[in-house]
UniProtKB/TrEMBL annotation:
<comment type="function">
    <text>Acts as a transcriptional regulator. Probably redox-responsive. The apo- but not holo-form probably binds DNA.</text>
</comment>
<keyword id="KW-0804">Transcription</keyword>
<dbReference type="InterPro" id="IPR003482">
    <property type="entry name" value="Whib"/>
</dbReference>
<keyword id="KW-0004">4Fe-4S</keyword>
<feature type="domain" description="4Fe-4S Wbl-type">
    <location>
        <begin position="16"/>
        <end position="78"/>
    </location>
</feature>
<keyword id="KW-0479">Metal-binding</keyword>
<keyword id="KW-1015">Disulfide bond</keyword>
<feature type="binding site">
    <location>
        <position position="17"/>
    </location>
    <ligand>
        <name>[4Fe-4S] cluster</name>
    </ligand>
</feature>
<dbReference type="Pfam" id="PF02467">
    <property type="entry name" value="Whib"/>
</dbReference>
<feature type="binding site">
    <location>
        <position position="48"/>
    </location>
    <ligand>
        <name>[4Fe-4S] cluster</name>
    </ligand>
</feature>
<keyword id="KW-0805">Transcription regulation</keyword>
<dbReference type="InterPro" id="IPR034768">
    <property type="entry name" value="4FE4S_WBL"/>
</dbReference>
<feature type="binding site">
    <location>
        <position position="45"/>
    </location>
    <ligand>
        <name>[4Fe-4S] cluster</name>
    </ligand>
</feature>
<keyword id="KW-0963">Cytoplasm</keyword>
<protein>
    <recommendedName>
        <fullName>Transcriptional regulator WhiB</fullName>
    </recommendedName>
</protein>
<comment type="similarity">
    <text>Belongs to the WhiB family.</text>
</comment>
<keyword id="KW-0411">Iron-sulfur</keyword>
Length: 87
C-alpha cells in the first residue's frame, strides 16, 4: 500500500485486498483488456470492511492509479469534481 498516509493507518491492515494479487487492483485500463480486473477489484472492494476509509484516503490523496474503495481513477476524478467546490 501507498505510504502517503497522514491519518490513522489502522484500516490498511483490514483491507480485503490483502488476500489478493495486488495487480488486480492496478489494471492496465478500466476498459478493454483491463476491464475484467477492474470489475473484479471493485467486487472485492464492495466486500471490504474498510471501504469508506479507503475511498476517503484515495480522494484526499488524489490517488491517480488503481482501484481504491471500489472506484476507478475516472470515478474518483468525477467524485472530486462533484464534492469539491470550484475555487
Ligand atoms: S476498499 Fe478495496 S482497495 Fe481499499 S482496502 Fe478495501 S479491498 Fe483494498
Amino acid at each position: 500500500m501507498n505510504r502517503l498516509y497522514h491519518e490513522s493507518e489502522d484500516w490498511v491492515a483490514q483491507g480485503a485486498c490483502r488476500r489478493y494479487d495486488p495487480e488486480i487492483f492496478f489494471p492496465v485500463s478500466t476498459t478493454g483488456p483491463g476491464r475484467q480486473d477492474a470489475d473484479l477489484a471493485k467486487a472485492i472492494c464492495r466486500t471490504c470492511p474498510v471501504r469508506q476509509e479507503c475511498l476517503r484516503w484515495a480522494l484526499r490523496a488524489g490517488e491517480a492509479h488503481g482501484v481504491w474503495g471500489a472506484t476507478t481513477p475516472e470515478e474518483r476524478r468525477y467524485l472530486r469534481r462533484e464534492l469539491v467546490p470550484a475555487s
